Every structure is written in C-alpha cells, then in structure tokens.
Amino acid sequence: MSETIQPENQPDIVLRRLTTGFMTTFVVRAAAELRLLDAFGAAPRPVGAVAEDLAVPRVTLVRLLRALTALGLFTETTVDCFAPTPAGELLRSDHPQSLHAFVEMFTDPVMTNAWQDLASSVRTGKTSFDERFGAPFFDHLKTEPAISALFNASMSQASRVVAEALPQAYDFSRFSTVLDIGGGDGTVLAGILRTNPELRGVIFDTEEGSAQAPERLAEAGVTERASVVTGDFFTGIPGGADLYVIKSILHDWDDDRCVRILRQCRAVCPPTGTLLIIEPVLPERVTETVPAGLYLSDLNMLVNVGGRERTCAEFAELCEQAGFVLTTTSPLSADVGFWYLEAKAA
User: Fold this and answer.
1) Of the candidates 103, 111, 106, 104, which has an alpha carbon nearest to the alpha carbon of residue 137?
2) Of 39, 104, 138, 263, which residue is most buried, by most CB within 10 angstroms?
3) Is 140 annotated in the active site?
4) Are 310 and 253 in contact (CB under 8 A)?
C-alpha cells in the first residue's frame, strides 16, 4: 500500500512554493523597512492605530499583516487586530536578540541582485556580484558607508549565538592573548573575554570592518583588556597572541586566498600557539537532517563574494597547505550551526 502524500508535500505544490519564495523574502523586507514591529511592540494592536503611526494606508497595511500572519510572524487576535509572534518580535530593532539589521542586509539589492545570475555563476564559476556592481563585494562596501555599517550590524547580529556558545564549548583558560582575525565589531571577542576575565584580546580587521568595535567592547565592559588593530589579513597579521581565532572569514574566499590568509597567520603563530577556525561545516553528503540553509549559504558565497562553504576534509587541506594540522573538529552545539576547528603548527 503506497503512502498517502499530504497536500503540502504534493510535487506541484512543493515546486510552486519554492518558485515563489522570493515573495516571502520581500514581504519580510517590507516589514523591516517600515519598522512595523517597532510600531507594534509586543502587544496586540488594531491596524488603524498602527497605520496612523506609520502614515500608511490602512487597507494596504492589513494586506501586508495578513501575509505576515500566514508566514508565522503575526497572529490575528481578532478581526483587524494583530500581535507579533516570537519570531516576528525579532524584527524589532530594540529587541535583545534583534535580527532587524540582518534582515535588512540580506534582503537589500546589494545582496539579492547577483542571485539573478546564479545560473551564469554555475556555468562560469565567476562571481556574479562583480559583473553586476563593477567591483568585488567588499570593495563595493568601501564606497557605500551606510551599507557597510548595515553589513557590520548584520554580522554582529548573526554572531551573537556564536559569542554565547563558543565560550561554553571551548576552553580558553589555557591562553593569555587571543587575536580575532577579521573580528568586525568585536561581538565574538567580547563574548570570549566576558567569560574569561584573565584573558586579553585583540580585534584585527579593516578600518571599515572594525568601525563599531570600540563601542561594542565598551558595552561589554572589556575595553581595558581589548584593543583594535587595523590592517589587511592578506598582507600581514599582528603577532603576540597564543590563540588566533578566525570566524566566518575563510568561507568568503577561494582556496588560494584562504591559504594566503592562513600562511600569514602561521608566520606569526608561535610553535606552541593555536589557530581556532569557526565556520559552518558541510557534511560529506547531503542527508535529510542537513539544513537547506547551509547549501544556500554556499551558493551565496558563489554569487556574491567568490567563496564557498567547506567540509572538514577541505578545511584540513587548506590548513596543511599553510603549515597547520587540524587536531580537533566539533560542532559548537546542535542548534548553533557552527563548528570549531582547532589547528596547531605542523
């Protein structure tokens, strides 16, 4: 007896849902652009009152809210009265776990336009972003200060779960100084230092990438134990640390440039020092338990920055070419989606 296919799993419905996924993206973007959740707060509100606050027509706001309700970001408590769900509340800009900047960045044309040329990138292996915008992604950000700041904020929001999970999963008490390569605004380093009061830290990033770091370190209360150094990790990395952390950097680059970064790290890492890579890790093959987002991220690296997600074996090969050997690989936790990969000098 054949298994009955549920309506939502019928092949045509599955394909239609995937085909119209872009509509979902821009429904969520509209909520972020309008700062709709800021207008709601956490309590149910009638549409008319919210429409007046936002200076938008009531009739179109109802249509948007009903779409957001169908997507699980709101509930309609009574007719034309809505309240955000826990997922919807994360679109509030002042929520402690806000993903507002992340949503704005990853739905902005600077991030979505190159996806229209995914087939071209698959055919050629070239990064579509460069063709669309006339410059590589990170070079383009240098010319757009507002987008650069939004990108930094989105990376900070995306890094919060790692900043919370990493100090619980990895023993930092063995080290005296940690240098965070491409450390951005210091979200991860601040998380490490807060839970390791004897540790000192350094953020190493470009001037644009580390622009918000002093503020973040001050908020975390670790300014006296942390410093910010600007530079280019392709041409040199500061010495003086016994632990070098590199999170969400290698997946931005092709293999050759990853090896260049790691060789710069190897040049300053002491013989007894440690390199700690924090990245998503692809399994050796796709299974039903692997989140689709991991492979979508891999394609985002292809079209926007020219990098890729990698397996443990591929990270091991990069390390070997740079004079390191992987000694430990482990997921941070079941729900974080990142691994830590510890490497020592070969």
Assistant:
1) 111
2) 104
3) no
4) no
